[in-house]
Amino acid sequence: MDPRLFPITLSFCVAVMATPLETTMTDQLRPSETVTEAAGPKVTAAPRLHCTDGSTILHTTDCTMGTPVSYCFKEEPPIECDDGFFPSVWHPDHCMEQSTCFPLDAVWITTECSNGAIPYTTKTLYDGTLAGGSSTVIRAVSCSCATDQWYSMTMQDGSSQCDTFCMPYESCPPGMTTSVSTNEFCATATADVCHGVPAETSYCQCADPTGIPVYTEQPGATAIGCV
């Protein structure tokens, strides 16, 4: 092909492609055809939660993230406990709760503070009628040491759990000695990281490693010695 003819041929093709076809509306539509506009965007709603077996929809929030969640919930009949037990709940897994029975003298139920601790919250574990018809209220207190005392965890002979004792930092009573605790992290960290945090802290402890602190009767009392 002659190269001089190529631009002319290309221009002719473009001109033909760009020229609209001259037809009328009557030519484009047959009498039996109608014009239908395209439907706009449509939002499809999520399928609604359908509950069966007498359960209802419960709207709540996730126990960790706080995001809204909905699920089918069915009220279970009240749990019946034997004499000497009270109904409550336990958590077998994360965000799960299950009814169960606990003994009235369970070791984890703290009704009063001891060993120098003071109560800071009270929670009602049960308020109702137990087996046998007795009306009972079971409360548990949470205890804490005063700000000028520290926690000493000690496991006594024959015990399967640690006991918490509130011990003074200074002015150690008879039977106690002054010890010094070093903040290992701040000992090697830069000054700006541990600004205001003492590198060493003095505290009292029983002179005899097997000794047990003793207190007066009133809650929050400071230890008066060791035995």
Overview of the molecule:
By secondary structure, the chain is mainly beta. Among the domains are: 83-88 and 102-144, no CATH class; 146-227, no CATH class. The protein is built from three helices and twelve strands, in the order H-H-E-E-E-E-E-E-E-E-E-H-E-E-E. The strands form six sheets. A two-stranded antiparallel sheet has the order 1-2. A two-stranded antiparallel sheet has the order 3-4. A two-stranded antiparallel sheet has the order 5-6. Strand 7 (149-154) and strand 8 form a beta hairpin. The protein is flat, with a radius of gyration of 39 Å.
What are its keywords?
disordered N terminus; signal; two-stranded antiparallel sheet; two-stranded antiparallel ribbon; 3 helices; mainly beta; single chain; 227 residues
N→C terminal distance: 117 Å
Largest sheet: 2 strands, antiparallel
* Strand line-up of the largest beta sheet: 1-2
Q: Uncertain spans, ≥5 residues at pLDDT below 50? A: 1-46
Q: What count of helical segments does DSSP give?
A: 3
Shape: flat
Mean pLDDT score: 78
Residues in helix, %: under 10%
Percentage of residues in strands: 25-35%
Give the SSE order as H and E letters. HHEEEEEEEEEHEEE
Whole-angstrom Rg? 39 Å
Structural class by secondary-structure content:
mainly beta
* Quantity of strands, as a count: 12
Signal peptide: 1-18
Keywords: Signal
